[in-house]
Amino acid sequence: MILYPMVISAGAVLLTLVYASYLDVRDRRVPFVTWYPMLVVGVPATIWLLYDTTTNASLVAGYLALVVSFFYANYLDTREPDAPFRFPFLLGVLILPALSWFILAKNVTLSLVPWYGMFAGVLLYISYEEYRKIIPKKTKQKRKRQQANISDALERWYFVLVIVIFAIASMYMITGRSWNYYEGLLILLCAIFCGVFYLFGRMHLFGGADAWALVFITFCIPTFPGTPLLDIPQFGFGFFSFSVLINALILTLVAPLGIFVANIVKGSRAPLQYMFFGFPVRGDRVQDAWGFVMEEFTDTKGTVNRHFIGFVESIRRMYSGEGRVYTKDLRENPELFKKELALYKNAGTVWISYAVPFIIPITLGLITAIVFGDFLSVMIHIFGGGA
């Protein structure tokens, strides 16, 4: 079976990912506008698929509401404080769920009213807080420290609550038979998976470009364009972006093995776990490499002391966005890292992480998922005793 809207969308997504991979390798940065071509093709293609298979306007509006909410979250995340606030954006985000859950729904359930109220309340509060940033400070009232901390936490994590509400609403719409089961399940999974991808990006577990790539793949290709060579996987409900992520993660595991072998061949020695994820470079050339520094250095009376940064500490720094030294920063802002650069030069060599942008495995994961299917399902089938 071939789903032609998804085939068209997959072509646009693949071309966009190839270009984004090129930008990430060249500049280690992928501007948000890079994703527009795949979205211009992919979102209408998904709408075409959903409406063609269900003729359910409520379901299509629910899909659009989810897409628009993510765009609005990005708008709030990237808006300059002194820029005018775009209230029409907020209006669209509030209208689409109301259309889907109440006006266009075949079977309206009043149980969704408080959930919509919570959804609207959270977005109105966050939007008001963003709007306040353009008001001169002298007109603002001072808030207590505890209130500020609560507000900061809500501003950082509010979208998790928004996604939870979308997921709950989707379940109501499916069980209430306002949405077709399979297509409604796709929207529910889109909400859950995109929420996880966005959350990982906020926690710096994915790069921003990697997180948005996975989010937009989910929106543009929610289901397999056709039957792959190894059949559509049952594990993950045949949800396409799940297979892309799994394949990308499996392909990524190949790189550490290659790095470990290269370190052994070259005679580079470090604690075992670091030999899988990094390699040494000359201290006076560390700016020319790509990655982040895996060691910490101190100078004690002319003697350079060094130790590897622990795994837990590395995760903490990655999550907080502070304390991690990236070679890109050394290259672009050497004046801010004069002390570190001097220590690296005196140390002779510096261990850095390998820096293959994750968007490359994502692109390969997309291709392999389309052609072969889900690697995880294949392994479960083989090791589970399948034929």
Outline of the structure:
With 387 residues, the chain is mostly helical. The chain has helices at residues 4-27, 36-54, 57-78, 87-103, 112-132, 145-175, 181-202, 208-220, 240-252, 254-266, 272-275, 311-320, 327-332, 338-347, 359-371, 375-383, and strands at 278-282, 295-300, 303-308, 349-353.
Number of β-strand runs: 4
Strand order of the largest sheet: 1-4
| Percentage of residues in helical conformation | 55-70%
Q: Flag low-confidence runs.
A: 136-147
Number of helices: 16
What percentage of amino acids are in beta strands? Answer: 5-15%
Radius of gyration over C-alpha positions, nearest whole angstrom? 24 Å
Average pLDDT:
86
H/E element string? HHHHHHHHHHHEEEHHHEHH
- Computed structural class: mainly alpha
Main beta sheet strand tally, sense and closure: 2 strands, antiparallel
Taken from the alpha-carbon principal axes, the silhouette is globular
How many distinct folded domains?
2
How far the N terminus sits from the C terminus, by CA atoms, comes to 23 Å
